[in-house]
Design a protein that fits this description.
With 226 residues, the chain is of the alpha/beta class. It has eight helices and eight strands, in the order βαβαβαβαββαβαβαα. It has helices spanning 16-25, 48-54, 75-81, 96-105, 150-165, 183-188, 198-201, 213-223, and strands at 3-6, 30-36, 61-67, 85-88, 109-114, 132-136, 171-175, 193-196. The chain has an eight-stranded parallel sheet with strand order 1-8-7-6-5-4-3-2. It starts with a strand and ends with a helix.
């Protein structure tokens, strides 16, 4: 099963609730929620109050990607605000196992995020505790960047680990530069969950509630070829 997770980083924030409602109605599966702190990454985005505001708007999974350092302090706030999945970068935690435990204690699923240059050995002792692994195919901080091809090799390596572990419940997510013309190749490398921001939200900037139907259908058509 493939899942599309549009990143609201590229949505129209003046109409955020409607943007989320419309893109989920068009066939997307997950709301990807990018949190940047202008410290761990060179950008500043949104916090728990926005998550809390959109929670009543949709029943879809809210997948919170924390690009913040330190990370533990903010996790309970996002759990209380309605997050379903909370992911973090290993570089942002002094104790990765403890941070995963904190996320679980708050009633959320836990994810670990790997930048293009972050080694996969962080998985060695925590793989059995994760619900999601997110491979960044751009350096985090800004939307609209180009896909880094080396991410395909990292996806293949993680998929091999997951297959060897026998744990088929861990989502393998990709984020950065995902488009209609490369999503099939990315899926063949092992990803099953796809974050796409500008490629989806830039496809429809008017008030037509069906404005995302065609681009979501195009993504699905490419994935059907895999």
């Amino acid at each position: 099963m493939f899942r599309l997770a549009p990143s609201i980083l590229s949505a129209n924030f003046a109409k955020l609730g409607q943007e989320i409602t419309d893109v989920i109605a068009s066939g997307a599966d997950i709301v990807h929620f990018d949190v940047m702190d202008n410290h761990y990454v060179p950008n500043l985005t949104i916090g728990p109050l926005v998550c809390e505001a959109i929670r009543p708007v949709t029943d879809a999974i809210i997948d919170v990607h924390l690009m913040v350092e330190p990370v533990d302090r903010i996790i309970p706030d996002f759990a209380k605000a309605g997050a379903n999945i909370i992911s973090f970068h290993p570089e942002a935690s002094n104790h990765i196992d403890r941070t995963i435990g904190l996320i679980k204690e708050q009633g959320c699923k836990a994810g670990l995020v790997f930048n293009p240059a972050t080694p996969l050995y962080y998985l060695d002792h925590v793989l059995d505790k994760l619900d999601l692994i997110l491979i960044m195919s751009v350096n985090p901080g800004f939307g609209g960047q180009k896909f880094i091809p080396e991410a395909l090799n990292k996806l293949r390596a993680v998929r091999k680990r997951l297959d060897a572990s026998g744990n088929s419940n861990i989502l393998l997510e990709i984020d950065g530069g995902v488009k209609v013309d490369n999503i099939a190749e990315i899926a063949r490398a092992g990803a099953d969950t796809f974050v796409a921001g500008s490629a989806i939200y830039n496809a429809g900037k008017d008030t037509d509630p069906h404005r995302y139907d065609s681009v979501v259908a195009a993504f699905r058509a490419e994935l059907a070829k895999v």
